Amino acid sequence: MDPARPLDGFPGPVTIAADRTVFTADQERFRGTVRDFLNQQVLPEYAGWKVSGKPSRQFWHGAASVGILGIGVPEEYGGLAGSDFRNSAVVTEEIQALGLAMGGLRVQTDICVPYLLHHGNPAQRAAWLPLLTSGRAVAALGLSEPGAGSDLKAMTTRAERRGDHYVVNGAKTFISNGAEADLIILAVKTDRDAGRHGISLLLVDASTPGFARGRKLDKLGLAAQDLAEMSFTDMEIPVENLLGDENAGFTYLTSNLAQERLSIAVNSQAAAAAVVSWTAEAMRGKDCGQDAKFALAQCAAEVAAGQTLIDQALRRHVAGQLAGGDAAVAKLYCTELQGRVVDRCMSLSEPTTAMRIDSRIANAYLDGRVSRIYGGSSEIMKVIIGHELSL
User: Fold this and answer.
1) pLDDT tens digits for range 257-272
2) How many structural domains are present in the chain?
3) What is the pTM of this model?
């Protein structure tokens, strides 16, 4: 089956809404380029990624060659001309239409690169952005610790200023791209007594003495994604590698949360849409019973609602008007939608198909669970929305 094929009377997984006017003509042409790249260069080697637990380096170079790694970056640094976050949404939708899990790519383009763009000085941008947009370097964000996840003020990785260097000691865990990263945007405590107001961000070259990679971590789903531990022992980082101002790291981290959460929401929405399409294709022409048809119709209606929400959020984000509460609504609705839809579609599928380890729907079930946790759990999204309601 062709996962991008529209269903009779109902749009396919990428164009679930009847009129996706949120995208420009250039972005729709970019969609075709991305689709060709995924089919020709990613699908043939994706099974190998699931064995090795990470994309190949060849992938990063290939993604750079079609502009994926340059989304939103000025052309002087190797960026994709005229691109914005909607191009990233296009990439995510095409990835999910094929049932792939490539979150490490979004970590680089949607999360790490914006820190350099918005808070890096000219020398830092000139040093790292051309490497990242060309695929010569992979980036990771070092936040989570064994004893500190969402509670950043509990962070224990410390950076002590000694002359023209910071001396860093500590550990990080559950770091996407951690096993392959050449650049780590590392969150550290530079004032241990200041809580969240004592956090700074450092640009760490992975070749720095004192930096060590730990285990590649096993996880539920996401077999093709790199997740690892890191440790830092008396690691010396030049003061000029401080990103922005000292002790302003928490502000920087929260400034990109709306885009990070929208990125997750786009991924979940696209995954849910794809699963509805696959299930409808499998059911068509079979005597599935009215209950099964009603269940899938309900999924399709919910997915259509989610697409409208996503497209509205994309418009607001590109216009610089996406508030934190808006992003929380999108992430909460679309990640919970993903869970409901994939679970229902699993129950509607033939057991011998749904339970196979190589089944797209089984992988969607496993890969989707973490979306309700990372980037802020569903409970955290509800807290944010509650604050917006003055509760």
Assistant:
1) 999 999 999 999 999 9
2) 3
3) 0.91
Note whether 110 and 265 are within 8 A (CB): no
**143-190: per-residue pLDDT in tens?**
999 877 667 778 999 999 999 999 999 999 999 999 999 999 999 999
pLDDT value, residue 149: 66
Report yes or no on 305 lying in a domain. yes
Can you state the angle between helices 43-52 and 57-65, rounded to 10 degrees?
Answer: 140
Are both 259 and 348 inside the same structural domain?
A: yes
- Per the CB < 8 A criterion, the answer to whether 382 and 285 are in contact is no
Least confidently predicted of 127-136, 214-223, 247-256: 214-223
Same domain, 322 and 378: yes
Considering the domain architecture, whether residues 33 and 92 belong to the same structural domain is answered as: yes
On the question of pLDDT at 356 being above 80, the answer is no
Whether residues 262 and 382 fall in one domain? yes
| Catalytically annotated residue among 93, 94, 145, 260 | 260
Q: Of 147 and 311, which is predicted with more confidence?
A: 311
169 and 244 belong to one structural domain = yes
Mean pLDDT for the chain overall: 91
133 close to 112: Cβ distance less than 8 angstroms: no
- Does residue 3 lie within any of the structural domains? no
Structural contact between residues 376 and 257, judged by C-beta atoms closer than 8 angstroms: yes
Give 319: exposed, middle or buried? Use CB within 10 Å, 0-12, 13-18, 19+: exposed
- Are residues 177 and 120 part of one domain? no
Domain that holds residue 374: 253-388
pLDDT class of 354 with cuts at 50, 70, 90: low
Domain boundary among 221, 249, 277: 249
| Model pLDDT, residue 357 | 58
CA 177, CA 154: separation in Å to the nearest integer? 23
Residue 36, number of CB atoms within 10 A of its CB: 12
379 catalytic per annotation: no
- Helices 257-283 and 324-348 cross at an angle (nearest 10°) of 20
Identify the helix (H) or strand (E) that includes residue 242.
strand 242-243
pLDDT of residue 16: 45
- First CA to last CA across the chain, in angstroms? 48
Looking at 106, 133, 160, the residue that finishes a domain is 133
